[in-house]
Amino acid sequence: MSTVDTVRTRLDALPDVGLVIAFIASIWAVMLVLAIAVGGANWANLAAGFVGSVTVLIGGYAILALALNLQWGYTGLFNIGIAGFMAVGAYTTAVLTAPTDPAAGAVPGLGLPLWVGLIGGMVMAAIIGGLAALPALRLKADYLAIVTVAFSEIIRLIVNWDGLAEVSLFGVPFGTGGATGISFKSANEVASTFINGVGQPIVAAAEGVGVSGPNLANLTYGILLLLVVAASYWVLARITNSPFGRVLKAIREDETVTQSLGKDTRRFKIKTFMIGCALMGLAGVLFRGQAGYVSPQQFRPTITFYVFAALIIGGSGSNTGSIIGAATFSGLLFYLPARLGENVSLGGTRAPGNIIDAVAGLGSLDPLPLLAYTISNVSTLRFVLIGVVLIYIIQNQPEGLLGHRNEPATSVSLDRAQSGSGGETDE
Amino acid sequence: MSEPDAAPRQETAVTSDAIESPLLVVDGLRKEFGGVVAVDGATFSVAEGSLTGLIGPNGAGKSTTFNCITGIHEPTGGRVTFDGQSITGLPPYTLANRGLVRTFQIARELSEMTVIENVMLAPGGQVGESVIRSVTPGLRGDVIEAETAVRDRAWETLEFFEIDHLAHENAGNLSGGQRKLLEMARVLMTDPEMILLDEPLAGVNPTLEEKLLERIHELRREQGLTFLLVEHDMDVIMNNCEHIIVMHQGSVLAEGDAETIKSDERVLEAYLGGDV
């Protein structure tokens, strides 16, 4: 039995919510162990920092992976413009909520409350998503992919454009800030105010063991993001486990058949695309805009491919798998190696300057130079690791960790009714 | 003859055997792919409650005619009328919702979905197909109720076709014959008035063939369904269909009951490869 099979069998035995909680908790445990191992007297603060950051990453990627799972995993809509739809959400929220009287040199916004901004961001991302989908959905799947990637770059170039950095409409000044970006009151700041206000005893207790205020705020924000993940999961599970979700799955399998069975597939595809884009917009502001600042650099196409990697690892077509995949990708493949590289050192061995020198050490049976090189360059080499994991998964477990599971698309149990009319036993 | 209106040259064959209450009327149907004329003025009608056979040598335009009737292709010319209303060029989903459905020549099961999911997909106008209703707590009661009804009907339909033991199996794991049964079960769940069957018996063993034909006759008898059947097996057509349409080179060559067709010189020539 291969390792993957063993992991799979264990994962299968747990109910979905328990599975997700256990998985995230074990990532936290790994972070805690790492903090204790390298932190010395400062371990508690370090642990809070590690756990906080990894939770924010998991939360952000989980929302994105869930959204992509609805579009691609369920419906087969190949959206490679995730970054663009995130940017639409983030920028809309930023423009709506940025203060009307900003600090010198910054761009003013409309000064609306954060919740208005978040809803506005989601609605705008959904509208732009719908517009992108409208012409492309009439064509074959490949065209949608081309249109979405083009849209995402167009959006990034537009927000980067000087001409919209600061404009005035009906005497109200606002803008995107161009290449310098825009600052606004972030959700993170709200969480921080919250924990420092209502959660004063917690703050005091945390400071007692040496956890700093910012680290505690970050941890609070991470947990807040997980609540958003839970809410998204709940909504998406209801959407996918319903007659609506059944049509989506059918579109993925064979659109002509679905149409022949009386379903207006275009309507379903556009709705689905808009819902997914709205979630991506929300993730754009909550995740990329967590520090209260957005700039075009944060919405490069790379993030699109990270989300695809997360979903492929977790198993496209499974909501639970999306979260597991997001946690695996962001926690274990993306965040952990970087922290290991920063905090682990090999006594006296200095890292060689390049890979040739590092490998040369092996000639004299000395693995230390290579090891030291690997550790000091881990933040670059982790992408090699991600690539290796992807190749392994695609070859040995193409459905991802949980994609093989059937999550029936229905709102009720599919077992035969137990009314016992007697008709069932008739042959 | 390129004009769709030129079709009435077949009228002589039709009038001798005029159909009293046609459910489906195809009039001068024409379909071109680039320079190739696949269907060239086909004209025929299908009586309500009948089992009509559509035969013809390979390339006669049977499948293209099917695709034009069911909205997969848009016809280049001609008219299709169903239940007294023009349905020419309407999309497949509109036709299905009006009661005209089809199966495919090569069974197209939704392979990554279970058999019962396949069957539960089919019924039209399910309340749960609205996102808002499926998600919102207050509105979801109706969805659950409708789902339970659809599920129970799905089980009955699977039992009717004797594939209920496969309900939780992925459709992709079914054998060729079982897939044909699943297709039939699926279209039946749409509550159709008329079913177009594109070679439902191809690659099906004799026992299963018997079973499928039995089901078709039962559905006609008990629910008054109308069937139009494309099939290559002559015996099946001759023994089961009361009305047979022969297509050749894109248009209708002959029409009538089994005896008429069997004794038609033109049909024999078309099948034996003589020049017409």
Automatic annotation (TrEMBL), chain A:
<feature type="transmembrane region" description="Helical">
    <location>
        <begin position="273"/>
        <end position="291"/>
    </location>
</feature>
<keyword id="KW-1003">Cell membrane</keyword>
<feature type="transmembrane region" description="Helical">
    <location>
        <begin position="17"/>
        <end position="40"/>
    </location>
</feature>
<feature type="region of interest" description="Disordered">
    <location>
        <begin position="405"/>
        <end position="427"/>
    </location>
</feature>
<feature type="transmembrane region" description="Helical">
    <location>
        <begin position="370"/>
        <end position="394"/>
    </location>
</feature>
<feature type="transmembrane region" description="Helical">
    <location>
        <begin position="77"/>
        <end position="98"/>
    </location>
</feature>
<feature type="transmembrane region" description="Helical">
    <location>
        <begin position="46"/>
        <end position="70"/>
    </location>
</feature>
<keyword id="KW-0472">Membrane</keyword>
<feature type="transmembrane region" description="Helical">
    <location>
        <begin position="110"/>
        <end position="134"/>
    </location>
</feature>
<feature type="transmembrane region" description="Helical">
    <location>
        <begin position="303"/>
        <end position="336"/>
    </location>
</feature>
<dbReference type="Pfam" id="PF02653">
    <property type="entry name" value="BPD_transp_2"/>
</dbReference>
<keyword id="KW-1133">Transmembrane helix</keyword>
<dbReference type="InterPro" id="IPR043428">
    <property type="entry name" value="LivM-like"/>
</dbReference>
<protein>
    <submittedName>
        <fullName>Branched-chain amino acid ABC transporter permease</fullName>
    </submittedName>
</protein>
<dbReference type="GO" id="GO:0015658">
    <property type="term" value="F:branched-chain amino acid transmembrane transporter activity"/>
</dbReference>
<feature type="compositionally biased region" description="Polar residues">
    <location>
        <begin position="408"/>
        <end position="419"/>
    </location>
</feature>
<keyword id="KW-0812">Transmembrane</keyword>
<dbReference type="InterPro" id="IPR001851">
    <property type="entry name" value="ABC_transp_permease"/>
</dbReference>
<dbReference type="GO" id="GO:0005886">
    <property type="term" value="C:plasma membrane"/>
</dbReference>
<feature type="transmembrane region" description="Helical">
    <location>
        <begin position="219"/>
        <end position="236"/>
    </location>
</feature>
Automatic annotation (TrEMBL), chain B:
<feature type="domain" description="ABC transporter">
    <location>
        <begin position="24"/>
        <end position="274"/>
    </location>
</feature>
<dbReference type="GO" id="GO:0005524">
    <property type="term" value="F:ATP binding"/>
</dbReference>
<dbReference type="GO" id="GO:0006865">
    <property type="term" value="P:amino acid transport"/>
</dbReference>
<dbReference type="InterPro" id="IPR051120">
    <property type="entry name" value="ABC_AA/LPS_Transport"/>
</dbReference>
<keyword id="KW-0029">Amino-acid transport</keyword>
<dbReference type="GO" id="GO:0005886">
    <property type="term" value="C:plasma membrane"/>
</dbReference>
<dbReference type="InterPro" id="IPR032823">
    <property type="entry name" value="BCA_ABC_TP_C"/>
</dbReference>
<protein>
    <recommendedName>
        <fullName>Probable branched-chain amino acid transport ATP-binding protein LivG</fullName>
    </recommendedName>
</protein>
<comment type="function">
    <text>Probable component of a branched-chain amino-acid transport system.</text>
</comment>
<dbReference type="InterPro" id="IPR003439">
    <property type="entry name" value="ABC_transporter-like_ATP-bd"/>
</dbReference>
<keyword id="KW-0067">ATP-binding</keyword>
<dbReference type="InterPro" id="IPR017871">
    <property type="entry name" value="ABC_transporter-like_CS"/>
</dbReference>
<comment type="similarity">
    <text>Belongs to the ABC transporter superfamily.</text>
</comment>
<dbReference type="GO" id="GO:0016887">
    <property type="term" value="F:ATP hydrolysis activity"/>
</dbReference>
<dbReference type="Pfam" id="PF00005">
    <property type="entry name" value="ABC_tran"/>
</dbReference>
<dbReference type="Pfam" id="PF12399">
    <property type="entry name" value="BCA_ABC_TP_C"/>
</dbReference>
<dbReference type="InterPro" id="IPR027417">
    <property type="entry name" value="P-loop_NTPase"/>
</dbReference>
<dbReference type="InterPro" id="IPR003593">
    <property type="entry name" value="AAA+_ATPase"/>
</dbReference>
<keyword id="KW-0813">Transport</keyword>
<keyword id="KW-0547">Nucleotide-binding</keyword>
